[in-house]
Amino acid sequence: MLEKKMQAQQPRCQAENDSFRCELISFNEVLRLSKILARKIKASGYKPDLIVAIGRGGYVPGRLISDFLLFDDLTSLKIEHYTRAANIREEVRIKFPIPVDITGKKS
Fold first, then answer.
1. Whether 76 contacts 62, CB under 8 Å
2. Which of helix, strand or coil describes residue 100?
3. CA dihedral (74, 107, 62, 34) positive or negative
4. Of 32, 37, 43, 75, which has fewest CB within 10 angstroms of its CB?
5. Rounded distance, CA 92 to CA 49, Å?
6. Closest CA relative to residue 94, chosen from 81, 103, 107
């Protein structure tokens, strides 16, 4: 029921200016793209020490990719370069840094 309701809603991006473009995608699309990326990582032979999800839109893909890779070490950070309503800030800032020491880690 909820899924049908969500599919019926048209995704929209709201911003104070028309120059901000974004594409909202469904969970199924996030799942599909995460699987593709996990397969590419596996095929490349790359073995990260840590997966870093970037908030806000990267939390779910980060978790999915870590699951597909059967990888437990997942952390996150939040970077801001937009103010409210998608207005670009002059400087990027890390609002919530990575909460663990990643010195010497491959991510």
1. yes
2. coil
3. negative
4. 43
5. 26
6. 81
Q: Which residues contact 105 (CB under 8 A, 6 or more apart)?
A: 48, 49, 50
CA 57 – CA 80 distance, rounded (Å): 12
Query: What is d(CA 20, CA 37) in angstroms, rounded to the nearest whole number?
Result: 26
The CATH fold assigned to 13-96 is: Rossmann fold (3.40.50)
Residue located via tokens 């991006």:
13
What six digits make up the tokens of 8?
């019926």
Q: What is the pLDDT of residues 57-81, one digit of tens each?
A: 899 999 999 999 999 999 888 887 7
Q: Give the tens place of pLDDT for each residue, 3-14.
A: 554 444 545 555
What does residue 92 show for φ and ψ, rounded to 5 degrees? -80, 140
